[in-house]
Amino acid sequence: MELHAELEAHIDRWRGYVQRRQAISPADVEELEDHLREQVADLQATGLDDEEAFLVAIKRLGNLDAVSREFAREHSDRLWKQLVLVPEDSSDAAAPRRELAVVLALAVGAGLAVKAGLTWIGDGEVLARNLGLLVFPFLAAYFAWKRRLTGQVATALLVPFAALAVLLNVYPFAAGGSTEVLAALHAPVVLWLLAGVAYVGGRWRSDGRRMDFVRFTGELAIYYTLLALGGAVLVGLTFAVLQVVGADLEPVLEDWILPFAVPGALVVAAWLVEAKQNVVENIAPVLTRVFLPLTIVMLLAHLAVLTAAGGLVDVDRDLLILMDAILVLVLALLLYAISARDSLAPPGLFDVLQLVLVVAALAVDAVMLTAMLTRIAEFGFSPNKIAALGLNLLLLVHLVRAAWLTVGFLRRRRPFNDLERWQTRYLPVYGAWAAIVVVVFPVVFDFA
Protein backbone atom coordinates (compact mmCIF):
# COMPACT_ATOMS: atom_id res chain seq x y z
CA MET A 1 0.00 0.00 0.00
CA GLU A 2 1.52 3.28 -1.16
CA LEU A 3 0.74 6.10 1.25
CA HIS A 4 1.18 9.85 0.71
CA ALA A 5 3.68 11.76 2.83
CA GLU A 6 0.99 13.68 4.73
CA LEU A 7 -0.81 10.47 5.67
CA GLU A 8 2.48 8.96 6.84
CA ALA A 9 3.00 12.06 8.99
CA HIS A 10 -0.46 11.55 10.54
CA ILE A 11 0.34 7.92 11.30
CA ASP A 12 3.73 8.87 12.78
CA ARG A 13 2.04 11.36 15.14
CA TRP A 14 -0.58 8.79 16.15
CA ARG A 15 2.13 6.20 16.70
CA GLY A 16 4.09 8.60 18.91
CA TYR A 17 0.99 9.13 21.03
CA VAL A 18 0.35 5.42 21.37
CA GLN A 19 3.97 4.75 22.33
CA ARG A 20 3.64 7.05 25.33
CA ARG A 21 1.00 4.78 26.85
CA GLN A 22 2.69 2.79 29.62
CA ALA A 23 0.69 -0.39 29.04
CA ILE A 24 1.55 -0.71 25.37
CA SER A 25 4.73 -2.50 24.34
CA PRO A 26 6.58 -1.87 21.03
CA ALA A 27 5.32 -5.16 19.60
CA ASP A 28 1.73 -4.19 20.34
CA VAL A 29 2.23 -0.71 18.89
CA GLU A 30 3.28 -2.44 15.68
CA GLU A 31 0.15 -4.58 15.74
CA LEU A 32 -2.04 -1.54 16.34
CA GLU A 33 -0.35 0.30 13.50
CA ASP A 34 -0.81 -2.65 11.14
CA HIS A 35 -4.49 -2.70 12.06
CA LEU A 36 -4.74 1.06 11.44
CA ARG A 37 -3.07 0.76 8.04
CA GLU A 38 -5.40 -2.04 7.03
CA GLN A 39 -8.38 0.11 7.99
CA VAL A 40 -6.98 3.04 5.98
CA ALA A 41 -6.41 0.84 2.93
CA ASP A 42 -9.96 -0.52 3.10
CA LEU A 43 -11.40 2.98 3.40
CA GLN A 44 -9.25 4.30 0.54
CA ALA A 45 -10.62 1.51 -1.63
CA THR A 46 -14.13 2.90 -1.04
CA GLY A 47 -13.09 6.27 -2.49
CA LEU A 48 -12.12 8.25 0.63
CA ASP A 49 -9.06 10.46 0.41
CA ASP A 50 -6.06 10.04 2.71
CA GLU A 51 -7.19 12.40 5.46
CA GLU A 52 -10.77 11.13 5.51
CA ALA A 53 -9.61 7.52 5.58
CA PHE A 54 -7.20 8.23 8.43
CA LEU A 55 -9.81 10.02 10.56
CA VAL A 56 -12.42 7.32 10.05
CA ALA A 57 -9.86 4.58 10.80
CA ILE A 58 -8.84 6.31 14.04
CA LYS A 59 -12.49 6.59 15.00
CA ARG A 60 -12.97 2.89 14.38
CA LEU A 61 -10.02 2.06 16.63
CA GLY A 62 -11.92 3.83 19.38
CA ASN A 63 -10.68 4.95 22.75
CA LEU A 64 -7.12 3.80 23.35
CA ASP A 65 -7.89 2.28 26.75
CA ALA A 66 -10.78 0.36 25.23
CA VAL A 67 -8.50 -0.88 22.45
CA SER A 68 -5.95 -1.91 25.08
CA ARG A 69 -8.55 -3.94 26.91
CA GLU A 70 -9.67 -5.59 23.69
CA PHE A 71 -6.07 -6.53 22.90
CA ALA A 72 -5.68 -7.90 26.41
CA ARG A 73 -8.62 -10.22 25.94
CA GLU A 74 -7.37 -11.43 22.55
CA HIS A 75 -3.75 -11.87 23.65
CA SER A 76 -3.97 -13.46 27.06
CA ASP A 77 -0.44 -14.86 26.72
CA ARG A 78 1.07 -11.38 26.98
CA LEU A 79 1.83 -8.95 29.76
CA TRP A 80 -1.26 -7.03 28.59
CA LYS A 81 -3.42 -9.10 30.86
CA GLN A 82 -1.53 -8.02 33.96
CA LEU A 83 -1.21 -4.37 32.99
CA VAL A 84 -4.59 -3.60 31.47
CA LEU A 85 -7.05 -6.04 33.00
CA VAL A 86 -7.59 -7.03 36.59
CA PRO A 87 -4.52 -9.01 37.72
CA GLU A 88 -5.09 -12.71 37.92
CA ASP A 89 -3.07 -15.88 37.85
CA SER A 90 -1.59 -16.46 34.44
CA SER A 91 1.15 -18.51 32.86
CA ASP A 92 2.44 -15.21 31.47
CA ALA A 93 3.86 -14.43 34.91
CA ALA A 94 6.87 -16.50 33.89
CA ALA A 95 7.52 -14.39 30.76
CA PRO A 96 9.82 -11.81 32.43
CA ARG A 97 11.88 -14.59 34.01
CA ARG A 98 12.07 -16.40 30.69
CA GLU A 99 13.28 -13.27 28.93
CA LEU A 100 15.86 -12.61 31.64
CA ALA A 101 17.16 -16.15 31.22
CA VAL A 102 17.48 -15.62 27.45
CA VAL A 103 19.29 -12.31 27.98
CA LEU A 104 21.75 -13.75 30.49
CA ALA A 105 22.45 -16.73 28.24
CA LEU A 106 23.18 -14.42 25.29
CA ALA A 107 25.32 -12.14 27.47
CA VAL A 108 27.39 -15.11 28.61
CA GLY A 109 27.58 -16.29 25.00
CA ALA A 110 28.95 -12.91 23.91
CA GLY A 111 31.53 -13.10 26.69
CA LEU A 112 32.56 -16.62 25.70
CA ALA A 113 32.93 -15.53 22.07
CA VAL A 114 35.19 -12.61 23.01
CA LYS A 115 37.19 -14.79 25.41
CA ALA A 116 37.65 -17.39 22.66
CA GLY A 117 38.76 -14.64 20.30
CA LEU A 118 41.34 -13.41 22.81
CA THR A 119 42.60 -16.96 23.33
CA TRP A 120 42.66 -18.29 19.77
CA ILE A 121 43.19 -15.24 17.60
CA GLY A 122 45.94 -13.73 19.69
CA ASP A 123 46.95 -11.09 17.12
CA GLY A 124 45.59 -7.78 18.42
CA GLU A 125 45.03 -6.27 14.96
CA VAL A 126 43.12 -9.30 13.70
CA LEU A 127 41.07 -9.34 16.91
CA ALA A 128 40.23 -5.64 16.48
CA ARG A 129 38.82 -6.38 13.02
CA ASN A 130 36.71 -9.24 14.36
CA LEU A 131 35.55 -7.87 17.69
CA GLY A 132 32.25 -6.56 16.36
CA LEU A 133 31.68 -9.82 14.49
CA LEU A 134 32.01 -11.73 17.76
CA VAL A 135 29.44 -9.67 19.65
CA PHE A 136 26.90 -8.79 16.93
CA PRO A 137 25.31 -12.28 16.58
CA PHE A 138 24.25 -12.30 20.25
CA LEU A 139 22.72 -8.83 20.18
CA ALA A 140 20.97 -9.59 16.88
CA ALA A 141 19.78 -12.91 18.34
CA TYR A 142 18.09 -11.04 21.19
CA PHE A 143 16.29 -8.74 18.76
CA ALA A 144 15.37 -11.71 16.57
CA TRP A 145 13.89 -13.53 19.58
CA LYS A 146 12.16 -10.39 20.84
CA ARG A 147 10.71 -9.37 17.44
CA ARG A 148 10.10 -12.92 16.19
CA LEU A 149 11.98 -12.28 12.96
CA THR A 150 10.91 -14.15 9.85
CA GLY A 151 13.32 -16.39 7.99
CA GLN A 152 13.48 -13.87 5.16
CA VAL A 153 14.65 -11.07 7.45
CA ALA A 154 17.11 -13.37 9.23
CA THR A 155 18.59 -14.32 5.85
CA ALA A 156 18.81 -10.67 4.85
CA LEU A 157 20.90 -10.09 7.98
CA LEU A 158 23.00 -13.22 7.71
CA VAL A 159 24.20 -12.65 4.13
CA PRO A 160 25.84 -9.21 4.63
CA PHE A 161 27.18 -10.33 8.02
CA ALA A 162 28.83 -13.39 6.47
CA ALA A 163 30.18 -11.33 3.56
CA LEU A 164 31.66 -8.78 5.96
CA ALA A 165 33.22 -11.54 8.09
CA VAL A 166 34.81 -13.16 5.03
CA LEU A 167 36.23 -9.92 3.63
CA LEU A 168 37.66 -8.77 6.96
CA ASN A 169 39.53 -12.06 7.31
CA VAL A 170 40.45 -12.80 3.68
CA TYR A 171 41.79 -9.39 2.67
CA PRO A 172 45.63 -9.41 2.86
CA PHE A 173 45.93 -6.28 4.99
CA ALA A 174 49.41 -4.91 5.58
CA ALA A 175 50.20 -5.26 9.28
CA GLY A 176 49.24 -2.02 11.00
CA GLY A 177 48.28 -0.44 7.67
CA SER A 178 45.78 2.40 7.32
CA THR A 179 43.15 0.36 5.48
CA GLU A 180 43.19 -2.28 8.23
CA VAL A 181 42.61 0.36 10.91
CA LEU A 182 39.87 2.00 8.83
CA ALA A 183 38.17 -1.38 8.30
CA ALA A 184 38.27 -2.10 12.03
CA LEU A 185 36.73 1.32 12.78
CA HIS A 186 34.00 1.22 10.12
CA ALA A 187 32.90 -2.41 10.35
CA PRO A 188 31.01 -1.78 13.64
CA VAL A 189 28.99 0.96 11.87
CA VAL A 190 27.81 -1.54 9.27
CA LEU A 191 27.08 -4.11 11.97
CA TRP A 192 25.13 -1.60 14.06
CA LEU A 193 22.86 -0.73 11.12
CA LEU A 194 22.32 -4.46 10.56
CA ALA A 195 21.38 -4.67 14.23
CA GLY A 196 18.95 -1.84 13.52
CA VAL A 197 17.25 -3.95 10.87
CA ALA A 198 16.84 -6.70 13.46
CA TYR A 199 15.60 -4.20 16.06
CA VAL A 200 12.83 -2.88 13.81
CA GLY A 201 11.79 -6.40 12.87
CA GLY A 202 12.89 -5.99 9.26
CA ARG A 203 10.70 -2.93 8.64
CA TRP A 204 13.64 -0.64 7.90
CA ARG A 205 11.75 1.40 5.31
CA SER A 206 9.47 2.84 7.97
CA ASP A 207 10.57 6.30 9.14
CA GLY A 208 8.95 5.67 12.50
CA ARG A 209 10.81 2.40 12.99
CA ARG A 210 14.15 3.98 12.13
CA MET A 211 13.49 6.79 14.60
CA ASP A 212 12.68 4.13 17.20
CA PHE A 213 16.12 2.68 16.55
CA VAL A 214 17.74 6.11 16.92
CA ARG A 215 15.97 6.52 20.25
CA PHE A 216 17.00 3.01 21.28
CA THR A 217 20.64 3.75 20.43
CA GLY A 218 20.66 6.84 22.63
CA GLU A 219 18.99 5.04 25.50
CA LEU A 220 21.36 2.09 25.10
CA ALA A 221 24.33 4.45 25.45
CA ILE A 222 22.81 5.79 28.70
CA TYR A 223 22.23 2.36 30.22
CA TYR A 224 25.58 0.98 29.05
CA THR A 225 27.38 3.96 30.59
CA LEU A 226 25.51 3.46 33.87
CA LEU A 227 26.38 -0.25 33.89
CA ALA A 228 30.02 0.55 33.12
CA LEU A 229 30.24 3.13 35.90
CA GLY A 230 28.55 0.80 38.39
CA GLY A 231 30.81 -2.06 37.38
CA ALA A 232 33.92 0.13 37.66
CA VAL A 233 32.94 1.13 41.22
CA LEU A 234 32.39 -2.49 42.25
CA VAL A 235 35.66 -3.66 40.69
CA GLY A 236 37.52 -0.75 42.27
CA LEU A 237 36.17 -1.54 45.72
CA THR A 238 37.00 -5.23 45.26
CA PHE A 239 40.54 -4.31 44.19
CA ALA A 240 40.95 -2.14 47.27
CA VAL A 241 39.77 -4.89 49.62
CA LEU A 242 41.95 -7.59 48.05
CA GLN A 243 45.04 -5.36 48.01
CA VAL A 244 44.73 -5.05 51.79
CA VAL A 245 45.16 -8.83 52.10
CA GLY A 246 47.89 -8.93 49.43
CA ALA A 247 45.86 -10.50 46.59
CA ASP A 248 46.35 -9.37 42.99
CA LEU A 249 43.11 -9.19 40.96
CA GLU A 250 44.62 -7.66 37.83
CA PRO A 251 45.17 -10.95 35.91
CA VAL A 252 41.59 -12.01 36.66
CA LEU A 253 40.33 -8.59 35.52
CA GLU A 254 42.19 -8.75 32.21
CA ASP A 255 41.61 -12.43 31.44
CA TRP A 256 38.04 -12.96 32.65
CA ILE A 257 36.11 -9.99 34.02
CA LEU A 258 36.58 -7.53 31.13
CA PRO A 259 36.17 -10.09 28.30
CA PHE A 260 32.81 -11.12 29.76
CA ALA A 261 31.60 -7.85 31.23
CA VAL A 262 32.16 -5.51 28.27
CA PRO A 263 30.22 -7.47 25.59
CA GLY A 264 27.77 -8.99 28.07
CA ALA A 265 26.80 -5.56 29.40
CA LEU A 266 25.80 -4.53 25.86
CA VAL A 267 23.20 -7.31 25.67
CA VAL A 268 21.98 -6.59 29.20
CA ALA A 269 21.74 -2.86 28.44
CA ALA A 270 19.64 -3.62 25.35
CA TRP A 271 17.28 -5.68 27.51
CA LEU A 272 17.05 -2.89 30.10
CA VAL A 273 16.10 -0.38 27.41
CA GLU A 274 13.36 -2.69 26.21
CA ALA A 275 12.12 -3.38 29.74
CA LYS A 276 12.30 0.19 31.10
CA GLN A 277 11.38 2.33 28.12
CA ASN A 278 9.05 4.66 30.01
CA VAL A 279 11.72 5.45 32.61
CA VAL A 280 14.26 6.41 29.96
CA GLU A 281 11.68 8.43 28.01
CA ASN A 282 11.31 10.60 31.11
CA ILE A 283 15.09 11.00 31.38
CA ALA A 284 15.72 11.69 27.69
CA PRO A 285 14.20 15.20 27.47
CA VAL A 286 16.10 16.22 30.63
CA LEU A 287 19.41 14.95 29.25
CA THR A 288 18.98 16.72 25.94
CA ARG A 289 18.11 19.99 27.66
CA VAL A 290 21.22 19.75 29.83
CA PHE A 291 23.68 18.71 27.14
CA LEU A 292 22.47 20.84 24.21
CA PRO A 293 23.67 24.18 25.64
CA LEU A 294 26.83 22.58 27.06
CA THR A 295 27.65 21.08 23.66
CA ILE A 296 27.13 24.46 21.97
CA VAL A 297 29.68 26.02 24.34
CA MET A 298 32.08 23.14 23.66
CA LEU A 299 31.75 23.52 19.89
CA LEU A 300 32.35 27.26 20.01
CA ALA A 301 35.45 26.68 22.12
CA HIS A 302 36.72 24.08 19.65
CA LEU A 303 36.03 26.45 16.76
CA ALA A 304 38.18 29.03 18.50
CA VAL A 305 40.95 26.44 18.92
CA LEU A 306 40.83 25.54 15.22
CA THR A 307 40.94 29.14 14.03
CA ALA A 308 43.81 29.91 16.43
CA ALA A 309 45.84 26.89 15.31
CA GLY A 310 47.65 28.89 12.61
CA GLY A 311 47.80 27.83 8.96
CA LEU A 312 45.32 25.16 7.98
CA VAL A 313 48.11 22.99 6.59
CA ASP A 314 49.81 23.06 9.98
CA VAL A 315 46.75 21.97 11.93
CA ASP A 316 47.73 18.89 13.90
CA ARG A 317 46.45 15.65 12.35
CA ASP A 318 45.43 14.29 15.74
CA LEU A 319 43.38 17.44 16.35
CA LEU A 320 41.47 16.87 13.11
CA ILE A 321 40.77 13.25 14.10
CA LEU A 322 39.56 14.39 17.51
CA MET A 323 37.31 17.03 15.96
CA ASP A 324 35.80 14.40 13.66
CA ALA A 325 34.96 12.29 16.70
CA ILE A 326 33.39 15.32 18.37
CA LEU A 327 31.27 16.09 15.30
CA VAL A 328 30.00 12.50 15.26
CA LEU A 329 29.14 12.85 18.94
CA VAL A 330 27.31 16.12 18.22
CA LEU A 331 25.35 14.42 15.44
CA ALA A 332 24.41 11.61 17.82
CA LEU A 333 23.19 14.18 20.36
CA LEU A 334 21.19 15.96 17.66
CA LEU A 335 19.52 12.71 16.59
CA TYR A 336 18.74 11.77 20.17
CA ALA A 337 17.32 15.23 20.91
CA ILE A 338 15.03 14.95 17.88
CA SER A 339 13.95 11.42 18.82
CA ALA A 340 13.14 12.52 22.39
CA ARG A 341 11.03 15.50 21.33
CA ASP A 342 7.24 15.49 21.15
CA SER A 343 6.58 15.95 17.43
CA LEU A 344 3.22 17.62 18.16
CA ALA A 345 4.65 20.34 20.40
CA PRO A 346 5.04 23.86 18.93
CA PRO A 347 8.49 25.41 18.35
CA GLY A 348 10.25 26.49 21.54
CA LEU A 349 13.51 27.68 23.05
CA PHE A 350 15.26 24.32 22.74
CA ASP A 351 14.41 24.14 19.05
CA VAL A 352 16.27 27.44 18.69
CA LEU A 353 19.19 26.00 20.67
CA GLN A 354 19.12 22.97 18.42
CA LEU A 355 19.48 25.25 15.41
CA VAL A 356 22.40 27.04 17.11
CA LEU A 357 24.02 23.64 17.72
CA VAL A 358 23.65 22.68 14.06
CA VAL A 359 25.05 26.03 12.85
CA ALA A 360 28.03 25.74 15.23
CA ALA A 361 28.67 22.19 14.02
CA LEU A 362 28.48 23.43 10.42
CA ALA A 363 31.07 26.11 11.15
CA VAL A 364 33.44 23.54 12.68
CA ASP A 365 32.84 21.14 9.79
CA ALA A 366 33.55 23.88 7.22
CA VAL A 367 36.87 24.75 8.90
CA MET A 368 37.81 21.07 9.05
CA LEU A 369 36.94 20.48 5.40
CA THR A 370 39.09 23.44 4.41
CA ALA A 371 41.97 22.10 6.50
CA MET A 372 41.62 18.62 5.00
CA LEU A 373 41.49 19.86 1.41
CA THR A 374 44.51 22.05 2.08
CA ARG A 375 46.45 19.11 3.52
CA ILE A 376 45.49 16.89 0.57
CA ALA A 377 46.64 19.58 -1.89
CA GLU A 378 49.93 19.91 0.03
CA PHE A 379 50.73 16.27 0.87
CA GLY A 380 48.60 14.20 -1.51
CA PHE A 381 45.97 11.51 -1.00
CA SER A 382 45.93 8.75 1.61
CA PRO A 383 43.26 6.31 2.84
CA ASN A 384 42.86 8.20 6.12
CA LYS A 385 42.46 11.57 4.42
CA ILE A 386 39.89 10.33 1.93
CA ALA A 387 37.91 8.51 4.63
CA ALA A 388 37.87 11.62 6.83
CA LEU A 389 37.02 13.87 3.87
CA GLY A 390 34.11 11.63 2.88
CA LEU A 391 32.74 11.58 6.43
CA ASN A 392 32.94 15.36 6.71
CA LEU A 393 31.17 15.82 3.38
CA LEU A 394 28.38 13.50 4.56
CA LEU A 395 28.13 15.48 7.81
CA LEU A 396 28.01 18.74 5.84
CA VAL A 397 25.06 17.59 3.73
CA HIS A 398 23.28 16.19 6.79
CA LEU A 399 23.73 19.34 8.86
CA VAL A 400 22.86 21.80 6.07
CA ARG A 401 19.57 20.06 5.38
CA ALA A 402 18.85 19.75 9.11
CA ALA A 403 19.45 23.48 9.57
CA TRP A 404 17.16 24.32 6.64
CA LEU A 405 14.34 22.13 7.94
CA THR A 406 14.76 23.47 11.49
CA VAL A 407 14.45 27.04 10.23
CA GLY A 408 11.29 26.03 8.34
CA PHE A 409 9.87 24.47 11.50
CA LEU A 410 10.71 27.52 13.64
CA ARG A 411 8.96 29.73 11.07
CA ARG A 412 5.99 27.32 11.18
CA ARG A 413 6.28 26.58 7.48
CA ARG A 414 7.21 22.91 7.91
CA PRO A 415 6.02 20.19 10.31
CA PHE A 416 8.52 18.70 12.73
CA ASN A 417 8.02 15.34 11.02
CA ASP A 418 9.95 16.63 7.99
CA LEU A 419 13.00 17.07 10.20
CA GLU A 420 12.51 13.62 11.74
CA ARG A 421 12.19 11.96 8.34
CA TRP A 422 15.35 13.63 7.05
CA GLN A 423 17.38 12.30 9.99
CA THR A 424 16.18 8.73 9.63
CA ARG A 425 16.35 8.59 5.83
CA TYR A 426 19.94 9.84 5.84
CA LEU A 427 21.17 7.18 8.28
CA PRO A 428 21.67 4.48 5.59
CA VAL A 429 24.06 6.86 3.80
CA TYR A 430 26.50 6.54 6.70
CA GLY A 431 26.16 2.77 6.54
CA ALA A 432 26.86 2.79 2.80
CA TRP A 433 29.96 4.94 3.29
CA ALA A 434 31.21 2.67 6.08
CA ALA A 435 30.71 -0.33 3.79
CA ILE A 436 32.70 1.41 1.04
CA VAL A 437 35.56 2.10 3.44
CA VAL A 438 35.60 -1.54 4.56
CA VAL A 439 35.12 -3.21 1.18
CA VAL A 440 36.53 -0.82 -1.46
CA PHE A 441 39.30 1.15 0.25
CA PRO A 442 41.59 -1.84 0.89
CA VAL A 443 41.44 -2.81 -2.79
CA VAL A 444 41.92 0.75 -4.09
CA PHE A 445 44.86 1.44 -1.78
CA ASP A 446 46.44 -2.00 -2.24
CA PHE A 447 45.66 -3.07 1.38
CA ALA A 448 48.27 -0.62 2.66
UniProtKB/TrEMBL annotation:
Name listed for the protein in its UniProt record: DUF4153 domain-containing protein
Keyword vocabulary terms for this entry: Membrane, Transmembrane, Transmembrane helix
Transmembrane domains' residue ranges: 100-121, 127-145, 157-175, 181-200, 221-244, 256-274, 286-313, 319-340, 352-374, 386-407, 427-445
NCBIfam families: perm_prefix_1
Keyword Transmembrane helix applies: yes
Presence of the UniProt keyword Glycoprotein in the record: no
Natural source organism: Arthrobacter mobilis
InterPro entries the record matches: Perm_prefix_1
